[in-house]
Structures are given as C-alpha cells and as structure tokens.
Design a protein that fits this description.
The complex is a heterodimer of chains A (about 425) and B (about 160). Chain A has about 425 residues and is of the alpha/beta class. Helix content of chain A is about 45%, strand content about 15%. Chain A contains 18 helices and eleven strands. Chain A has helices at about 20-25, 30-35, 40-50, 60-65, 90-95, 100-110, 125-140, 170-180, 210-220, 220-225, 260-265, 290-295, 300-305, 325-340, 345-360, 370-380, 390-405, 405-415; strands spanning about 75-80, 115-120, 155-160, 205, 235-245, 250-255, 255-260, 275-280, 290, 300, 315-320. A five-stranded mixed β-sheet of chain A has the order 6-5-11-8-9. A four-stranded parallel β-sheet of chain A has the order 3-2-1-4, with helices on both faces. A two-stranded antiparallel ribbon of chain A has the order 7-10. Chain A starts with 17 loop residues before the first helix and ends in a 13-residue tail after the last helix. Chain B has a four-stranded mixed β-sheet with strand order 2-1-3-4, with helices on one face. Chain B is of the alpha+beta class and about 160 residues long. In chain B, about 40% of the residues are buried. The longest helix of chain B has 13 residues, at about 10-20. Chain B is built from seven helices and four strands; from the N terminus they run H-H-H-H-E-H-H-E-E-E-H. Chain B folds into two domains: about 10-70, Arc Repressor Mutant, subunit A (Orthogonal Bundle); about 80-155, Glutaredoxin, CATH 3.40.30. The chains are: A alpha/beta (about 425), B alpha+beta (about 160). The interface between A and B is large, with 56 and 46 residues.
C-alpha cells in the first residue's frame, strides 16, 4: 500500500505553483521551523532515523552533525544530478512539487546555519530546470528566500546550477568539483565535504528526496516519522520501478515493504505469460537478485544488504524471462566504462576490460575462462579507488556471473543466447 | 567560422555569469552552453579561443571542462539532435532496435549529420525516463513511450 508523506499531491497540476502549493499547506512547516532552535531541528532529524535517499543511505542528521563549529560560511548543495540507471523519482518531484524541494532546503539550511545553497540539476532535465527556476523566483517574491525570511532574521540565497552530462557528478565530491567549474572528478576523502567541501568550505550535500523528507520530520516530529518503516530504515521512500512490469512509475511506500508486493500490487505485476527472472533493486550499481531471492526481499537498507544487494536510490528494475542476462550485463558494463572519470587506474582500466570481455562473449568470441576473468577483474576493482564507481561496476558484474552462470556458459559454447528470441543488438 | 563571436546579449550573459558564483571558474559550464546555443549546437575550437579571451580563463581549462561532459558537442550536429537512451530499462524495451530503425529510416549513420543538415542520431546513457521507456531527447525535449512508428513520425514533423 502506498503511504504518501511526500507525494500526496503530485497528481494535481496546481501543486507546481506557489499558490497551489500553499493551498495544500505549503510553507507552513517552514514558518514553524524558523521559530525553532536550529540545533533542535538537527536533533529531530537525527532522531527520525532519516537516511540519505540518493544511494548511500547515510544518516542525514549525523552528516549534518559533522559540520565544524569554526565560523566559516557553510554551503548546502542539493544533489539533483539523478543519473543512476533506473532512477527517475527526483525528476518527478522537481516537476510536480518544486516548492516542496525548496521548502525542505530552506528548513535544512536554517538547521545547519547555511546562507547559500545550490540545486545541482543534471543538464538533460530541461523541464526540471525550468520549473525549479520558476519556483525559485516565486519563492523570492513571496519572501521565503532572501533577507530576513518571514521576519525570522534568517537570510538565505538559493540558485540552480546546471550540470552538463556526467554520471560521476552525482558523487558528492565529483559534484563539488563540477560546481567549482572543473571536470567532475571525485576528491579523496577525508576530508569529507562537511569539513572541506565547496571551495574548501564546510558543505552538506543531500539528495532531492532527502531534503523534502525533512518537512514531514519537522512537521510531525521524529516519532511520527518512525511510525513508518522499520527500526533501522525509518520513514517512506520513493521507488522508481521500470522494466517488465505492467505499470512502471514512481511509488511511495514505507521502507520494509515486500518487493513482490511492490511489483504485484502497485505495479500490476508482470506482463501476461511472463515469469520473473531477476530484479535489480537499487539502480544498476546494485547486485541483481534472482526470482527466489526476490520472494524474501523487503525494500529496506538491511533486508537488501542481507541478500548481498542494496537499496541504493530505490530504482527497481524488473527483469522477466524474455531477457538475456549476458546482454543486459553488456548494457550495464558499457555504461560504467563510458562514465568512469578516468583518474583511478583500477576503475579506468577495469571498466574498460569488463566491457570488452562481456562484449566479446556477446559477439561469439568468448572463451570459457572469460567467465571467471569477469569475476577476477571485478574483484581487483573493489575498495581501491577514490569513489564508489569502480565498485558499482564490479558488484553487478560479479552478481550476474555468479547467479546466471549457465547463461554465460551457454553463450560461450553456442555463440548465442540461451534465451529464445533474445538476440543481442550491437550498437 | 574562424571569427566566432557571441551576440551582444551573449556577452552580457558571460559577464553576469562571471560575477554570479563564488568563483569565476563556475561560469565556464554555463558559458559553454551559451556558446553551443549560438554556434548551431556545437563548440568549435575557435569559439573556445574566443571564450577564453572573453572570460580571461585559460583555453586549456575550458577545453578540459568541454571534453569531460557529454552534453557539449565538439563536432557539428544536425539542427535536431536526436538522442536515444539505450541504458538498461530502455534497452529492455527495444531502444537499441529503435535507434537502428531511426538511422535506417532517415538514412543517416549513428553520430553523423544527415545530408540535409537536419538530423544527428546518437545513443546515450540513462536520461532518467526509465518508467516511460523507450524514449528519446530531441534538443531540449523528452519524447517518451515511443514505438518505432511514433518516433519516426515525431522526427518527420520537425522542420
């Protein structure tokens, strides 16, 4: 069952405008927050158990708590560079409820004492960019942004920064490099952005959905927020479901919701006559689950970690029995090879080799030892690089080979897919 | 082509962007977009030299940024830049077959400009439209839930 703490009004076109947003209680929580002690808001967010909705799942309040008390200006950076394959929830939020994002950001900025924030939106999202910019104008003219917001004495400026096409800019230090006007290459951590971020100043980077989720937390309190979800995975989450389901789309459910319920109840199940083969539960970086594993999977951080995968950005890619897993791994490896920023050798070379090996199998040139080679190369790519992209390529590769080895072996032996009718399409 | 220049409004835009952020370097990406817009959809080497002088930022730095990001075209493109997402959810819904179909229908090779200068068709990575696959982006606009026929029709109707 959907629980719409964030998405209740997304189907109403008026919700996009300031007037429509205010009609549905918009900016009420901001007025409440500005009367609170900022430290109390941070504590409330900590107590709520809210975790980063962009992929890493790090506790939001704890991240905010890392800011040093050294009098330096602090920046808030909203990560709207939604690029994890399978993910499209942030786009929905920006297009349907831009003021929700802005309100969540002003509250968060007030809590952490930041006077300047940026919303870094991926360049391809032309509609989101236009709609959020329009909403910013409205928010400024209504006095929700700028000097002395709602008479509170709190000043805050917010701007949009448009990316230019690079998956790696969704990594928080890559995003900071990009905002600084450079190649979007990640930086070595520590120091973490909360200590040394944008231009060396303390910076908090949070995902679109995370910042919006601060509104219900501040509105009804941490305990009310914790009514939804599980002990360690509190609250609701927007899931982007795509692939072979009858009704793909974005659905908001409580964390801990069974994966098969999401597929069968919210998404109308699989297409008639098709059987479930696999699900990628958290974007293409997450290890794939077999149909048997899906039956035990709940959509929370712990349940998916127990199954050796991850919740990631909440991008659920449903794969039925008409698909060839070797072909799909080829698509995924092409992506990581294309998106590696190139600064760390294991990633730059590893993603290239994985792409080459899988495509040699797909072209009928594969050898049986190549299957183990995929796993061996992958294992050498993990934990050896500045950011997580290398692991994000290696983990799905290992899971595809280990769980669907018969399909890889068949492809090598026969030079074609084990799945009837699933021809690989060369690009 | 050798003497690329921005329009008067373009120059004003660059000057304003240089002051807009905490560091003038942050203006490079927005200004490259502006150049691309005023240069038929691509950023030429001449325009980089021009921008470097205008912004007082080394050409090497601008080239570094230019070559890193996929949305900047370093070669000429057609008036309509058709980008078909071929990442996983789109691939599962026939996006690669669609790309081939479009190239064949309009007699153009992937990544090349069609003879009449109207089209460039390329495959791209995830555009965040996975629930409405397959999809394509033409210049700034998304077209979703495509079939081979509907995609051909959309492109035919463009000027």
């Amino acid at each position: 069952m959907e629980i719409k703490l964030l998405s209740e009004h997304y189907d109403k076109p008026e919700y996009r405008s300031l007037e429509g947003y205010k009609k549905h209680d918009g900016y009420r929580v901001l007025a409440k927050a500005l009367k609170m002690d900022p430290k109390a808001i941070v504590e409330e967010v900590k107590a709520s158990g809210l975790r980063g909705r962009g992929g890493a799942g790090f506790p939001t309040g704890v991240k905010w708590g890392f800011l040093p008390d050294n009098g330096e200006p602090r920046y808030l950076l909203c990560n709207a560079d939604e690029g994890e394959p399978g993910t499209f929830k942030d786009r929905l939020m920006m297009e349907r409820a831009p003021h929700q994002l802005i309100e969540g950001m002003i509250i968060s900025a007030f809590a952490i004492g930041s006077k300047k924030s940026y919303i870094y939106i991926r360049g391809e999202y032309d509609d989101s960019i236009r709609i959020v910019r329009e909403a910013l104008k409205e928010a400024y003219s209504a006095g929700f942004l700028g000097q002395n917001i709602l008479g509170s004495g709190f000043d805050h400026d917010m701007d949009v920064y448009v990316g230019a096409g690079a998956y790696i800019c969704g990594e928080e230090t890559g995003m900071i490099s990009s905002l600084e006007g450079k190649k979007g290459q990640p930086k070595l951590k520590p120091p973490f952005p909360a200590v040394k971020g944008y231009l060396g100043k303390p910076t908090i980077v949070n995902n679109v959905e995370t910042l919006a989720a601060v509104i219900p937390v501040v509105d009804k309190g941490a305990q009310a927020y914790r009514q939804h979800g599980t002990e360690k995975s509190a609250g609701t989450k927007l899931f982007s479901v795509s692939g072979n389901v009858v009704k793909p789309g974005t659905y908001e459910v409580a964390l801990g919701y069974p994966l098969m319920d999401l597929i069968n109840n919210e998404c109308g199940g699989l297409k008639p006559g098709r059987k479930l083969k696999a699900v990628i539960p958290g974007g293409s970086s997450a290890p794939v689950l077999t149909a048997e594993e899906c039956a035990q999977a709940n959509m929370d951080y712990e349940s998916l970690a127990q199954l050796g995968s991850m919740l990631g950005s909440g991008a659920v890619i449903v794969i039925d029995d008409s698909n060839c897993m070797v072909d799909l791994l080829g698509v995924i490896m092409h992506f990581y090879h294309h998106e590696s920023c190139g600064q760390c050798t294991p990633c730059r070379e590893g993603t290239g080799w994985l792409n080459k090996i899988v495509h040699s199998v797909l072209s009928g040139q594969g050898r049986l030892q190549d299957i183990d080679l995929i796993v061996r190369v992958s294992e050498h790519m993990m934990g050896r690089t500045i950011c997580a992209l290398s692991d994000a390529a290696a983990l799905p590769a290992i899971s595809f080979v280990k769980k669907f080895r018969d399909e890889f072996e068949f492809y090598v032996r026969e030079g074609r897919s084990k799945v009837k009718g699933a021809a690989h399409v060369e690009m | 082509m050798a003497d690329f220049q921005l329009s008067a409004e373009g120059v004003e835009f660059v000057k304003a962007e240089l002051k807009r952020y905490e560091t003038p370097l942050s203006a490079v990406i927005p200004c490259l977009y502006r150049v691309q817009k005023e240069n038929q959809g691509w950023v030429s080497p001449e325009s980089v030299s021009y921008l470097s002088q205008l912004m007082d930022i080394p050409e090497a730095h601008i080239n570094e940024v230019l070559s890193f990001y996929t949305m900047f075209n370093r070669e000429p493109v057609g008036r309509h830049h058709v980008q078909v997402c071929c990442n996983i959810s789109c691939a599962m819904n026939g996006a690669r077959e669609l790309t081939h179909h479009l190239c064949k229908s309009f007699d153009v090779k992937e990544g090349e400009v069609s003879k009449d200068g109207k089209l460039t068709i390329t495959r791209v990575e995830c555009l965040g439209s996975c629930g409405t696959a397959p999809m394509m982006q033409i210049n700034d606009r998304y077209y979703e839930n495509l079939s081979p026929d509907s995609a051909v029709k959309i492109i035919k109707e463009l000027e």
